[in-house]
Write a structure and sequence with these properties.
- The complex is a heterodimer.
- By secondary structure, chain A is α/β, with parallel strands linked by helices.
- Chain A has 2 domains: about 220 residues, Rossmann fold (3-Layer(aba) Sandwich); about 80 residues, Alpha-Beta Plaits (2-Layer Sandwich).
- Helix content of chain A is about 35%, strand content about 30%.
- In chain A, strand 1 and strand 2 form a beta hairpin.
- In chain A, helix 2 crosses helix 3 and helix 2 packs parallel to helix 4.
- The longest helix of chain A is centred in the middle third of the chain and has 16 residues.
- By secondary structure, chain B is mostly helical.
- Helices cover about 65% and strands about 5% of the residues of chain B.
- Chains A and B meet through strand 6 and helix 2 of A and helix 1 and helix 7 of B.
Chain lengths: ~300, ~425
């Protein structure tokens, strides 16, 4: 079951095409990564999903039905370009944003109080937004995004400007929300976060999706049959047929298996040579490497 | 609808509870009162005292100048050259030198001093000299003083009566003109002040980047309208407070300064002091003319043009605000496009109050960009003086409704794209593109 289905989305600004035929599905309850270099068309895509702007053509389906006004209230969106009303107090600001999402005053007030407590900032209620640091404001924005218990949470570069401690705090909250069943779209160009957080990704470049799938599968798909072995024993290895040695020395060996070789065969060959194997692993490309490779290729 | 209401509330409350709102609301009228009080004080207290030595070559002016208005005259029978040297040491502020006149139609006296006389004292001296010369001439020409007084006291007052008006009541064009001017000017100020407030609000929302968070919950049009209405209510609140304050202040002034007021009245009745000021009968005429104006009717029509004009210009200002670049201050090179028709309206209005039935008056009070300022000004004259208003007013109102419907639609289209454009400076050409898209 998908919470979001996008089909053949086109969007252009004058002669500039921001999205050219983008299609992908976001499974319900997943953390879905939307990746792409700067200017790839991610933000435009998100604005289409949140119905802030309309696509020139193509369809957006939410929970299987075409996007309607009411869906605003079940989506939480934290834009990359985000700010708050500087002169307002944290408490009233959050209550205001909650009410714009359809909560009544009492509900909104209660939820804001709960969230402030959860993030250990209960005493911020009467603080003016302009007196908060950028990172502190980001926490407030995160609360604003999740206040109304959205079914779909869209986070555009949620960690930019946050210190490691607060990054982790927000990250934990994201996982917590997912456990409770919230679907999350996570847009970024920071690949290490993607690997850590997302189950599934789509890679957008120049307004097109060039890659899509589960993180594990994608890494498998782009693997180059490389293995790393840590060993002790005779340093002078007999030449192994069917393998290319990429790196060797100090008991560390990196091999690339040629067509038709399995890891078991490799391990057996190494053992036959009388080596003592301490560590053996297949080297999978990082999402970062795949990203760079694919973007350069496309 | 519910969400627009939330936005209106926020826009309203965040402005009304600001310290600057309280300050301007309270200080502006106090400032006005202080301004008038000071002007009155200056008028009452008069000028600095001056001791003037008079050198009169003909001897005919001797001892005829009266000491008044803080001017004290003393005659000296010395040469001008000598007095030039010593007047300071003898305690005089200046020398009034009256050469023997070549003929009695042209008197060319001189005031000599090291400090300027000022226009008020100058007038006082000239008036006195003229009076003395007049008396000299009356004597020389053997004119009968009584006959002359008769001739001098001819009084002509042109009364204007509108045919067909009940009781042929007298319409005072001057009162209507002032009334119209005040109404037009009030709308002009409202459009400019609160329009700019809308523009600044939109630009701030955009540059602070809160806008994308908001429009993920509401439509851009709702946000824009919420802001325009919210700011408009702030304006109404401010006007209401001023209205109440004015009434209160009036009472305070009447009770606290009752004594000084009668002094002022006396001053106004002093013919030397108040040349050209209305006499009692004329004042009564003004009051009567003022009472003829249908204030209730005027109030409703004024409110209509206030709201209509504000919606029209407020939405245009919102569109301009949405085109703001990252730097809030530099964005407003575009705002002149909206400001110019407002300033033009006040210029036209000034001409219209002088001739309220001209073609310019008719056109500009129907055209929606100028009608909010010009029409209320014309209405000050009333339907009786301008019967063509019976058809022009409804036409003008319809045009204004169409006008602001169109500008809000137009602004909505520019706004929804403009607020999402970050960074680059926006040109008119860009806006044209957004209209299409």
């Amino acid at each position: 079951m998908n919470i979001l289905e996008l089909e053949h989305i086109y969007k252009s600004y004058g002669s500039y095409a921001a999205n050219r035929d983008i299609s992908f599905n976001v499974p319900k309850g997943s953390i879905f990564g939307m990746l792409g270099p700067n200017g790839a068309g991610k933000s435009t895509m998100i604005r289409i999903i949140t119905n802030i702007i309309a696509a020139d053509s193509g369809s957006v389906r939410f929970n299987g039905e075409p996007f309607k006004e009411k869906h605003h209230e079940v989506i939480g969106y934290m834009p990359e370009e985000r700010g708050l009303y500087k002169k307002m107090m944290v408490g009233e600001h959050l209550v205001y944003l909650g009410r714009l999402k359809g909560l009544n005053k009492a509900e909104a007030t209660k939820k804001v109080k709960d969230w402030l407590e959860k993030l250990h900032i209960a005493d911020w209620w009467d603080k003016k937004i302009e007196d908060l640091s950028k990172g502190m404001q980001q926490k407030v924005q995160f609360i604003a995004t999740t206040l109304h218990d959205p079914q779909l949470l869209i986070l555009d570069e949620p960690f930019s400007g946050l210190d490691p401690v607060n990054s982790n705090l927000i990250k934990d909250e994201i996982f917590e929300l997912q456990r409770k069943g919230t679907s999350i779209i996570f847009s970024t160009h920071r690949m290490e976060q993607v690997e850590e957080i997302c189950e599934e990704i789509v890679l957008i470049n120049s307004g097109q999706n060039i890659l899509q799938g589960k993180v594990k599968e994608v890494r498998q798909r782009f693997k180059e049959n490389k293995y790393q072995v840590l060993y002790t024993g005779d340093n002078t290895l007999t030449v192994l047929s069917g393998y290319e040695v990429e790196q060797q020395g100090q008991g560390n060996l990196v091999l690339k298996a040629l067509e038709g070789q399995t890891p078991n065969q490799l391990l057996r060959t190494l053992l036959d040579q009388g080596l003592e194997i301490h560590h053996f692993n297949e080297i999978l490309p990082s999402i970062n490497e795949i990203f760079i490779r694919q973007v350069q290729a496309s | 609808m519910n969400k627009i209401w939330l936005i209106i509330q926020r826009e309203y409350w965040t402005r009304v509870r600001k310290k600057s709102f309280l300050l301007t609301t309270i200080l502006a009228p106090l400032g006005m009162v202080a301004f008038f009080a000071i002007s009155i004080l200056v008028a009452v207290s008069g000028q600095t005292e001056r001791r003037i030595v008079v050198i009169d070559d003909s001897g005919l002016f001797a001892n005829k100048l009266e000491d008044k208005n803080n001017l004290y005259f003393k005659y000296a029978d010395t040469s001008l050259a000598y007095m030039n040297e010593v007047y300071k040491n003898e305690g005089y502020d200046g020398i009034l030198y009256i050469p023997a006149p070549k003929n009695w139609q042209t008197i060319r006296p001189e005031y000599r001093s090291d400090s300027p006389l000022g226009s008020v004292a100058k007038n006082h001296i000239s008036n006195q000299l003229e009076k003395v010369t007049r008396n000299i001439l009356i004597e020389q020409e053997h004119v009968d003083k009584a006959s002359l007084d008769k001739i001098n006291n001819i009084d002509v007052a042109l009364a204007e009566k509108i045919i067909g008006q009940e009781d042929d009541k007298e319409a005072s064009a001057e009162v209507s003109m002032v009334m119209g001017y005040i109404l037009g000017f009030a709308i002009y100020i409202i459009l400019l002040v609160y329009g700019t407030m809308v523009m600044k609000g939109v630009a701030e929302e955009k540059t602070s980047k809160v806008v994308e968070i908001i429009i993920s919950s509401v439509k851009p049009f709702q946000l824009m309208m919420g802001k325009i209405v919210g700011v408009g209510l702030v304006g109404l609140t401010q006007f209401a407070i001023w209205g109440i304050m004015l009434v209160v202040l009036q009472f305070v002034v009447v009770f606290a300064f009752a004594g000084q007021l009668s002094e002022l009245q006396a001053l106004a009745n002093d013919p030397a002091m108040a040349a050209g000021q209305p006499d009692q009968a004329e004042i009564a005429g003004y009051v009567a003319a003022f009472q003829q104006i249908n204030l209730v009717q005027l109030f409703f029509i004024f409110t209509f043009y206030f709201i209509g004009g504000y919606l029209l210009y407020g939405s245009l200002y919102a569109a301009i605000g949405s085109a703001a670049g990252d730097d809030v201050d530099s964005n407003n090179s575009l705002s002149f496009i909206v400001t110019i028709p407002i300033i033009l309206s006040i210029t036209i209005m000034t001409a219209v109050v002088r001739d309220p039935s001209s073609t310019l008056a008719t056109f500009s009070s129907i055209f929606p960009l100028t009608s909010p300022v010009v029409m209320p000004a014309r209405l000050g004259f009333g339907f009786d003086s301008l019967p063509e208003l019976y058809w022009q007013l409804p036409l003008s109102m319809i045009c204004l409704i169409l006008g602001f419907t169109f500008t809000t639609w137009l602004a909505g289209r520019i706004y929804r794209t403009g607020i999402l454009m970050q960074g680059k400076k926006i040109t008119l050409k860009d806006m044209g593109m957004w209209l299409k898209g």
